[in-house]
Amino acid sequence: MNLIIFQLTSASTLLNLMKLGAVISEDLLLKCVKCGLCKSVCPSYYGEEGSFARGRLALAEMVTKGEIPLSEEVKKYWDECAMCRRCEWICPNDVHYKEIFVRAREKQEEEVGRDFISKAGLKSLEFMQSSFGRKVVKAVGKLGFLLPSEVKTPLPNGSVKFMPKPDGKPFNLRGKTFKAKEEKGKLLFFTGCMIDVFYGKTGESVVKLMNSLGYTVVVPEDIKCCGAPHLYHGNKEAFERLKDHNLKEIDRYEFDAIVVACPTCGGALIEDYGRDWKVYDFAEIVSKERIDFKAEGERISFHVPCHSYSAMRVDPEVFYSVMERVREAKVVRAEKAQSCCGFAGLWSIKNPKLSERVQKEKVEDFKRTGADIVLTTCPGCVLQLRDGMKKFKSEQKVLHLADYLADRLEAM
Ligand code: SF4
Ligand code: SF4
Asked: What residue's CA is closest to ligand 1, atom 3?
């Protein structure tokens, strides 16, 4: 009898595992040893087991085995995960948290559907990059002079977020080639949605830096969102559609490597596009070359974006090594430089309380450094840190590292 029950349970477990994919079965059932180390780095942890990786994985395991239903409570704990992947980075047992949660969220989508904010947010990312969407963004950009530099935007829970206004010349770099004087290589610049729409100057700064180093920069005409937000939300169908489109577009160009100034895009290109391209954060390229910068005596600190080390696997010391080369600037390290800023795209809108708690800790940490300028290498982190400085009353300026360096470039 026991044997029959065991066989039936195993069969139903197997069926559920097959629905979720083979990788999940191995990782879920064997790899997480429940040590709890991931608790110490999780930005969403608030004292409950379900609010960090170990608990979320245990719930995924029970749902997979059919021991509990995918209830509203399970969904809540899963939705509170920022997908920063710091747990994956610190895990001593190589648990593939991203792989597991992409599949868990796929299952969530199949069984209980997606919430309105995620649906609207993911659709708007696709819309912005459509030909009609680009026209709309350009029209709004032209009227941008009527708006303040940061627009106070109400969030669903009654709080507000200071959002950047659309750039005056959105998508300005698209379809252009920026030739270096003495070309030693050609880079394809995957700009990413936020640089295309909000932070055009950062795109120009990357081009300026790469050209100064002797790299010609090619910006594809018709790149769409990298699809990472869709993948992280379990919308595999949208991710595959965006990836296929981008692969066709990228294949039209010749290049030696891809350069990014957004680590989430970079992570997706490295991990999920199935090509053996060389993909670099712009700062990695700068760190390998001889180039001089000169400042005016300011104190600079750095926020390390989670996906730069958890997805792109860039050593944070690379960024500090670049900053140390700026003459007459003093680098002051923040104690929690590597902790999450609380943005994580739609997560900050869906979980404003959690996001603001993390953001406040971050701002207080930077205040203690006494830095004049806080630098980072992710446009999303720039948005979140600027919003945080306003909300929690800090005068510190926040800049993308590319902008800071491009403005302090010395003649070569
Ligand atoms: S650190 Fe890794 S092995 Fe330990 S509980 Fe977290 S996910 Fe599991
Ligand atoms: S991905 Fe980030 S928020 Fe989610 S469990 Fe891991 S550390 Fe916590």
From this structure: 32
**CATH number for 64:** 1.10.1060
This prediction's pTM: 0.91
Strand, helix or coil for residue 307: helix
Domain that residue 16 falls in: 2-112
Terminal alpha carbon distance of the chain: 81
Query: 84 and 188 share a domain?
Result: no
SS3 track for 21-67: CHHHHHHHHHHCCCCCHHHHHCCCCCCCHHHCHHHHHHHHHHHHCCC
Q: Which one has a higher pLDDT value, 23 or 64? A: 64
* Tally of domains in the chain: 2
* Whether residue 40 has its Cβ less than 6 Å from ligand 1: no
Model confidence pLDDT, tens digit, residues 256-304: 999 999 999 999 999 999 999 999 999 999 999 988 899 999 999 999 9
**Are 310 and 388 part of one and the same domain?**
yes
Q: Whose CA is nearest to atom 8 of ligand 2?
A: 42
For ligand 1, atom 4: residue with the closest CA: 35
On whether residue 310 sits in a domain, the answer given is: yes
Specify the ligand 1 atom closest to the Cα of 35.
4
